[in-house]
Amino acid sequence: MADTPNTSSEAGELYLDAAATEPVSPAVIEAMTPFLTEAYANPASVHQPGKTAARALDAARASFAAALGARPDDVIFTSGGTESDNLAIKGIAMARMRKLGLRPVYGLDETDDKQLASSRPRIIISAIEHPAVAQSAAWLHEWFGFEVVRIPVDAQAHLDLDALERELDGEAGERTTMVSTMLANNEVGTVEPVEELVRIAHAHGVPIHVDAVQAAGQIPIRMRDWDVDALSVSGHKFGTPKGLGALLVRGRTPIEPVLSGGGQERGLRSGTQNVAGAVALAIGLNESNARMQAQYRELVASRDMLIDAVRRVVPRADLTGDPVRRLPGHASFVFPGVTGEALLVDLDARGIAASSGSACAIGRHEIPATLLAMGLEPSVAKSALRMTFRRPLAREQIERVSLALEESYAGLTRH
Ligand code: PLP
């Protein structure tokens, strides 16, 4: 648990990896505990304890939905961002494939049948999606012969809206089952123009899923106002235990479940519901939203001070992503001449926990895929460093980071 903002319990370690995960908030632990101890019943049970659990689940669902500008019926509780993305991509694409009268194509990679190739179902994603989306689309290709179209991005990771329009036009557009894009990028923090993306997809009658895992609790989300069809969030990015999340999906959106079973969560996510987890999601998100409202400007100001300080001490450092339309507590750079990995290890030894950008490459130091899609050379993309925080950084913390970076960079480039 955080002792003071942005520090972990390990002697003064400065924790700048909030995009990877956050500590569980004390208010969340307090709110969820009764549902792990005395009010533990299964919310599907008809007895009184079951009804108590069901009421708590309903209340959590309503409060959580409201915090995302959605309705209670939109919410499907899941085990996190990865599951939500899988359910959205596989569930919507397969339901729409059937609705559009398209057939799966098996073994397409082994044939050069052009007619087959031009009749298969399609899915459009962006070139900078998290593996939870990109690999789900790859699975559709592998097992059902989907054509996976990736919309390119510019040098600041903005999606190419004209390319999206083009891909949705004409015969190929009619075979398109869905569009999936992220709201805010995990590696470089750029925020995409969600309302424009929705407008373009809907103009072609295609539903759109938005991965809002990095955005929830950091920037306002108005699912219904934006007219988004499906939206993924993950609790551990806003103060709940890991392994909790939700897919919000409108009743009008065709979708098939990925898990079969007892039919909980509108039949879209079978399995006994995690009442304490739902309570944690509602409390964690509301708490993060309240903090966002109270501290947004201060957080942005401290982020910009950090960016300026880093550029001052390492003039070769380049900010990655959009300098303005980016998440409030997200500062990401490339440091030409060193590897991000060496920098991370060196900073860690100096008590600063940062990241190279993608936490999900377990035990492997991969080149951040977003940076490659933005057109950076692999040798430069390899030098990425991301610093993310949910609370404003104090002046001394910024000085500490810039001093450490100056020394690390000088040390690593000396040889
Ligand atoms: N989508 C994005 C954009 C993410 O950043 C992450 C995790 O970092 C995920 C999905 C996966 O979420 P989870 O860790 O809850 O499975």
Q: What compounds sit in this structure?
A: pyridoxal-5'-phosphate
Strand order of the largest sheet: 2-8-7-6-5-3-4
**Runs with pLDDT <50, length 5+?**
none
What is the subunit arrangement here?
single chain
Helix content: 40-55%
CATH superfamily of the largest domain: Type I PLP-dependent aspartate aminotransferase-like (Major domain)
- SS elements, strand count: 12
The overall pLDDT average reads 94
CATH class of the largest domain: Alpha Beta
User: What number of structural domains do the residues give?
Assistant: 2
Structural class category? alpha/beta
Q: Number of helical segments?
A: 14
List the helices and strands and how they pair.
Layout lengths: L13 E2 L10 H7 L15 H20 L7 E4 L2 H19 L14 H4 L4 E5 L4 H14 L2 E5 L9 H8 L1 H5 L1 E7 L11 H10 L4 E4 L11 H4 L3 E5 L10 E5 L25 H39 L4 E2 L10 E5 L5 H10 L2 E2 L15 H5 L4 H4 L2 E5 L6 H20 L1
Parallel strand pairs: 1-11, 3-4, 3-5, 5-6, 6-7
Antiparallel strand pairs: 2-8, 7-8, 9-10, 10-12
Helix pairs in contact: 1-10, 2-10, 3-5, 6-8, 10-14, 11-14
Bound molecules: pyridoxal-5'-phosphate (PLP).
